[in-house]
């Protein structure tokens, strides 16, 4: 699975290494994941159903919220899994999680799942939700973190740079924060190279200056940050000589960002789909730009408006059931995103394919006839915009069925002709004679947790 030497916990034993118990457990999970990724889809599904039955039985027995809700659920371990009665379990919405409070917490967590911690995650609207997670769940999180490193053949001796939410006042420019390892998952098993991090609230100039100074092998950050950094480096002719791969998390990746990253730095971009309350949902395939569902950790359904599973090429809501968090089971949880279901992958892995992750309902353009569209921008779209005016950053806000505001940060004030050209371009791009207003801003930043959205609809359907 990797050439990287495993850390030994036994005195005077270097090779083959004998790792400590937690590292051994992690390696044992990884050993299984290495095999199960090649299982046919049916075999993976059967194994998931077996685990789901255990989760359902536990939830019905020990989580007050589910007692009634799972009355008819297919819970008997060992019996055939009845997908029809599974699909009758109501979808768990974000509001349900908020309203349920402690009723979603197990009153009888098996001791071997370890201690629990809780986090709050805000999502893009509304109140934060609380998620309680076990140590065991953390072990699976670590396993998928390492799988991503293996899949994308990262050399863990290298230097990893991250620009992300670090907590208020943490990892500030100019020094950022320095660590002698790549974080919990990697450190547990391997001796790794160093990692450095910088707070996401730093400016693009500061980020680039810091990156040039740190000269990392890998960069992990949000897609919108990558886009901004790459544009800045393109404009100034800046290279990051050691950089060999960019990893993105936490926002919808626009196809244009992938292209730009390759153009400016000559490196591939690898995206991943995770949620703090649900864990790893999907990782990018090692051989393609689509994603593989992490079936060993989560059951994912992509459902159309009628609640039926989407066929390849169809777009639907992402409904997730993490398989291993028994402290606060999320069963058929609507994570709030949309994705496009994909065909089985040519790489041979049986893990289901998500072709694209499309973001949230409020990122959809609603046409005057009510049709919803995903306004993803390709690199040629962005070139077309740049050809009309020197735009640094942009954000579309649909104000009503007939009007769109284009928020802009520009290199200089735009002429009336440039403004009119942009308005025409927006109408052309979105296929309707929308009323387009322009507004100008010194900077455009993300709303919460540094997340930036290119397109926001203020229409509530
Ligand atoms: Zn694949």
Structural commentary:
By secondary structure, the protein is an alpha/beta fold. The protein has a domain at 365-457: GMP Synthetase, Chain A, domain 3 (2-Layer Sandwich). 30% of the residues lie in helices and 24% in strands. It has helices at 21-36, 41-62, 66-69, 83-87, 94-100, 135-151, 184-189, 204-214, 223-236, 255-265, 379-388, 416-430; strands spanning 116-121, 129-134, 160-164, 177-179, 195-199, 218-221, 245-248, 269-275, 279-284, 291-293, 298-303, 315-322, 333-341, 353-360, 365-366, 372-373, 391-400, 403-410, 435-440, 455-457. The strands form four sheets. A twelve-stranded mixed beta sheet has the order 4-5-3-6-7-8-9-10-14-13-12-11, sandwiched between helices. It has a four-stranded mixed beta sheet with strand order 19-18-17-20, covered by helices on one side. It is globular and about 70 Å long. Zinc ion binds next to loops.
Could you list some keywords that capture this structure?
12 helices, 461 residues, alpha/beta, GMP Synthetase, Chain A, domain 3, single chain, 30% helix, twelve-stranded mixed sheet, binds zinc ion
Portion in helices: 25-40%
**Shape summary:** globular
Our Rg estimate from Cα atoms comes to 23 Å
Extended strand count: 20
Structural class: alpha/beta
Main sheet attributes: strand count, strand direction, barrel closure: 12 strands, mixed
């Amino acid at each position: 699975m990797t050439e990287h030497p495993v850390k030994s916990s036994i005195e005077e034993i270097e090779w083959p290494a004998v790792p400590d118990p937690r590292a051994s457990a992690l390696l044992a999970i990884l050993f299984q994941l290495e095999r199960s990724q090649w299982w046919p889809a049916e075999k993976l599904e059967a194994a998931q159903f077996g685990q789901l039955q255990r989760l359902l039985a536990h939830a019905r027995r020990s989580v007050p919220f589910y007692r009634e809700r799972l009355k008819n659920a297919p819970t008997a371990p060992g019996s055939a899994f009845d997908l029809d009665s599974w699909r009758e379990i109501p979808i768990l919405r974000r509001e349900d999680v908020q309203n349920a409070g402690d009723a979603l917490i197990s009153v009888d967590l098996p001791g071997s799942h370890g201690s629990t911690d809780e986090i709050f995650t805000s999502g893009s609207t509304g109140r934060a939700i609380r998620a309680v997670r076990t140590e065991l769940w953390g072990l699976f999180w670590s396993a998928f973190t390492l799988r991503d490193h293996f899949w994308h053949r990262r050399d863990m001796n290298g230097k990893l740079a991250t620009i992300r939410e670090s907590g208020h006042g943490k990892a500030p420019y100019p020094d950022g924060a320095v660590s002698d390892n790549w974080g919990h998952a990697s450190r547990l098993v391997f001796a790794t190279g160093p990692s450095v991090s910088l707070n996401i609230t730093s400016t693009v100039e500061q980020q680039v200056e810091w990156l040039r100074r740190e000269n990392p092998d890998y960069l992990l950050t949000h897609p919108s940050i990558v886009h901004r950094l790459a544009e800045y480096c393109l404009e100034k002719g800046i290279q990051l000589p050691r950089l060999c791969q960019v990893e993105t998390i936490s926002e919808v990746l626009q196809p244009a960002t992938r292209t730009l990253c390759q153009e400016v730095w000559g490196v591939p971009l690898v995206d991943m789909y995770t949620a703090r309350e649900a864990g790893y949902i999907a990782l990018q395939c090692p051989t393609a730009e689509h994603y593989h569902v992490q079936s060993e950790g989560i059951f994912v359904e992509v459902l159309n408006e009628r609640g039926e599973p989407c066929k390849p090429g169809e777009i639907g809501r992402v409904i997730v059931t993490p398989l291993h968090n028994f402290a606060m089971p999320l069963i058929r949880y609507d994570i709030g995103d949309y994705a496009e279901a994909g065909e089985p992958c040519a790489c041979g892995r049986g893990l289901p394919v998500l072709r694209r992750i499309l973001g949230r309902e409020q990122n959809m353009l609603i046409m005057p006839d009510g049709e919803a569209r995903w306004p993803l921008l390709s690199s040629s779209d962005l070139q077309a915009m740049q050809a009309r005016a020197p735009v640094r950053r942009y954000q579309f806000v649909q104000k009503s069925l007939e009007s769109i505001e284009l928020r802009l940060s520009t290199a200089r004030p735009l002429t009336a002709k440039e403004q009119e050209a942009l308005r025409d371009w927006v109408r052309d791009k979105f296929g309707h004679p929308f009323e387009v207003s322009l507004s100008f801003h010194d900077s455009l930043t993300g709303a919460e947790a540094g997340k930036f959205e290119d397109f926001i609809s203020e229409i509530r359907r």
